[in-house]
Specification:
- The complex is a heterodimer.
- Chain A is of the alpha/beta class.
- Chain A contains ten helices and 17 strands.
- In chain A, helix 1 crosses helix 8.
- The N and C termini of chain A lie far apart (about 85 Å).
- In chain B, helix 5 links the parallel strand 5 and strand 6.
- In chain B, helix 1 crosses helix 7 and helix 2 packs across helix 4.
- Chain B has a domain of about 220 residues: NAD(P)-binding Rossmann-like Domain (Rossmann fold).
- Classes of the chains: A alpha/beta, B alpha/beta.
Chain lengths: ~350, ~350
């Protein structure tokens, strides 16, 4: 009988909102399962550090990043603001530590490439937190597309947005300074990653947003995947149904953002469509059968780390940092080719009147 | 414009954001103030020196107002926030040396269906049925009390139904229509005391500098007299929805949403409702009460809130002649143009506007 492997020693860097809301429960779950032990948490803000650290009494609370490296964890999770990702990731990799970096990998493609190169040079693993790749729904949709179940695709339409309520701590997140993250870098990272994961790199892209010297709250991207046009509309401003609709000759799928185990599926020529709930596929005595309903968001989030620390997990589920480069490149291209969104109501009335 | 920066407290909200947009695009120095960083999404589209302050925190507000000549107070929230924030905001403005506050109140201080002849001289009641109205009345009174002992001038503006980009009377109405939840009361023939958001900001801009208006309140509105049906029409048309197919309910349906109808009947607010409407509501309640006994379980019965019933049965266009006289206010955007701008925004926001980018 094989002895159970010792838990992986993990340190978490950055105790802000994503750490508190998502990594904390994920790490608690994986600790309970004996897969990892959180040995340290780091944040320069003692209040944030204590808030997070209270859930992990045995973890050391470190206010200086070099102290994290000094205790030599096996895996560092980088959940700090994106502008710190390159520096912290490269330092950890150089110290011989595997890194899991929250999205976006880097503020731009050049920094991302430096990080990926550093991982190769150090011979360490660099993975990226793209939680949506761990949803049963997005995996199933990707397979429907790649298997040709929808037939040749005709159009892709994605709308994603809702008023922004993420509990950011600094106004810098929303000001045109280093550290800002507009809706493209924020939600767009998820959306473009999914599209390129499903469909490959787009052949053309055009971009417009509503920034007027500051940080965009709305943007619109037009892409071509071969001869398939895709429209992406992102907003932090106003809620509309968050839906991705992919239409092909033989069928269509409509996915509501962050539905981990559900989407709608229409089959052309039948006049029918169904709301599909995904279960674990289970093999019964004589035929396949439905197992438990596929995991919810928290499980998908935890799975990102599980696949890094559980030897029994499927290594193919890891998302290597290099996979983020395509999206970073697209975002760079968007900003470089940026146009102003038309906003015909914007001009003050007293100016329009003159 | 004013001689120094203009603070906009509540800059993340629908009207506060538009104040920032219009004043900034006009070249005025604007300082958006919001409660938390995430509320800077819209002001953050500009490169502005934003500040963070909770409207209950006098010290934080004093810092946020530092260096500002005037301030626009566009705080939204529950009744506790609306009333409880008045004193700390005023004191902070006083400490920071702000010369004038323009406080965004509402025409609802006169009720949703004001009596004919209502104007700024009409006494206000803080015992109305709708808590929001009472909170706004108390906030106005509190602000005027603060002004008795402080040096900051105050001007109160009372807009009615503010529609336009990011208004719930525009986007929210479109949501209701698309969800099949929109309805009119009594055919929407009542008067809608509407004002396009840019006209509100225009009035704010005038109120920041007009002389001799300390401690004055002003009703403001669009030039046109419109009905609720008129307000719904362009949105429905934009979405390709036949306005005539919207359900229209009688004001009687309000009774289902009134938890203690006797309290309503006896309330001061109910007594402010025009007599014909009041009689209609009473009769309709009786009809509705009887009908409820006969409705099979599970059947949909059109219902409306008291607020909506009162709004849609309003019979009086509130005047803005005092604002014209003292502030020089004259609406800049016509109702038709305001509707065009609103529908353009719906298209921008991703609604399926006919002929639009998302259709």
């Amino acid at each position: 009988m094989n002895a159970r492997p010792a838990p992986v020693h993990v340190a978490l860097v950055g105790c802000g909102a994503v750490a508190q809301l998502y990594y904390r429960p994920a790490l608690e779950t994986l600790e309970r399962e004996g897969l990892l032990r959180l040995t340290a948490a780091h944040d320069p803000d003692p209040v944030a550090l204590d808030t997070f650290g209270d859930s992990f009494p045995s973890a050391r609370r470190l206010t200086r990043f070099p102290e994290v490296l000094a205790i030599s964890p096996q895996l560092v999770i980088i959940a700090s603001p994106p502008r710190y990702h390159p520096e912290q990731t490269i330092a950890a990799l150089a110290a011989g530590i595997d890194v899991h970096c929250e999205k976006p990998l880097a503020p731009n493609l050049a920094e991302g490439e430096r990080m990926v190169a550093a991982a190769v040079e150090a011979g360490r693993r660099l993975s990226i937190g793209m939680v949506r790749r761990h949803f049963a729904s997005t995996r199933a949709i990707g397979r429907l597309i790649s298997n040709g179940n929808l037939g040749p695709l005709g159009s892709i339409d994605c709308f994603e947005g809702t008023p922004f309520t993420w509990p950011v701590r600094s106004v810098d997140f929303l000001r045109p300074v280093a550290g800002a993250a507009g809706v493209l870098q924020d939600i767009g990272t998820h959306c473009l990653d999914l599209l390129t994961w499903w469909l490959g790199s787009p052949s053309a892209i055009s971009y417009e947003d509503d920034a007027m010297g500051g940080v965009e709250a709305n943007c619109r991207i037009e892409l071509m995947f071969g001869d398939v046009p895709a429209t992406v509309r992102l907003s932090r401003d106003w809620a509309r149904p968050n839906r991705y609709v992919i239409t092909g000759r033989d069928g269509w799928v409509a996915w509501t953002v962050n539905e981990t185990n559900h989407f709608d599926y229409g089959i052309s020529g039948t006049g029918y469509a169904g709301d599909l709930t995904l279960h674990e596929a289970s093999v019964g005595v004589r035929r396949p059968t439905l197992g438990a309903v596929a995991g919810e968001f928290d499980e998908a989030f935890a799975n990102q780390v599980r696949v890094l620390v559980d030897p029994a997990s499927d290594a193919r589920e890891r998302v290597p940092g290099a996979d983020a480069l395509t999206t970073l490149g697209l975002i760079d291209r968007c900003y470089a080719s940026r146009r102003q969104m038309p906003m015909p109501w914007m001009v003050p009335a007293w100016r329009a009147a003159t | 414009m004013t001689s120094g920066p203009i603070a906009v407290l509540g800059a993340g909200g629908f009207i506060g954001n538009r104040v920032v947009e219009m004043l900034h695009l006009d070249g005025a120095p604007v300082i958006p103030i919001v409660r938390q960083p995430s509320s800077l999404v819209l002001p953050g589209r500009f490169d502005l020196p934003a500040r963070i302050a909770n409207a209950f925190d006098e010290n934080a507000l004093t810092e946020a107002f530092a260096g500002c000549d005037t301030a626009v107070i566009a705080i939204a929230g529950d009744p506790r926030t609306l009333v409880g924030s008045v004193t700390p905001v005023y004191r902070a403005a006083d400490s920071a040396g702000v010369r004038r506050l323009v406080h965004l109140s509402t025409a609802s201080v006169h009720g949703q269906a004001p009596l004919a002849g209502t104007d700024e001289t009409t006494p206000l009641s803080d015992r109305q049925q709708i808590p929001y109205n009472n909170a706004k009345v108390r906030a106005e009174r509190q602000l005027l009390r603060c002004g008795e002992s402080g040096s900051v001038e105050t001007v109160l503006l009372r807009p009615g139904i503010v529609y336009g980009p990011r208004s719930n009377w525009t986007g929210g109405l479109a949501d209701e229509m698309l969800a099949g939840a929109a309805s009119l009361v009594e055919g929407g023939r009542g008067i809608c005391n509407g004002i396009y958001v840019d006209n509100v900001v225009h009035a704010i801009r005038l109120a920041l500098t007009a002389p001799g208006v300390d401690r004055q309140a002003y009703l403001i509105g669009d030039a046109e007299t419109i009905t609720w049906r008129d307000l719904y029409g362009p949105i429905a048309a934009g979405l390709g929805i036949d306005l005539d197919l919207l359900p229209t309910t009688s004001a009687s349906a309000v009774s289902r949403r009134v938890p203690m109808v006797d309290r309503v009947r006896g309330s001061a607010a109910f007594r402010l409702v025009p007599a014909p409407v009041r009689a209609g509501m009473k009769a309709a309640y009786r009809t509705h009460r009887d009908a409820r006994q006969k409705v099979p379980s599970g059947s949909a019965v059109p219902t409306v809130t008291l607020e909506k019933a009162l709004l849609h049965t309003c019979a009086y266009k509130l005047p803005w002649s005092k604002a014209r006289q003292d502030l020089g206010y004259q609406p800049l955007v016509s109702f038709a143009d305001g509707c065009r701008r609103s529908v353009a925004w719906l298209d921008f926001a991703g609604y399926p506007v006919h002929g639009g980018s998302a259709a």
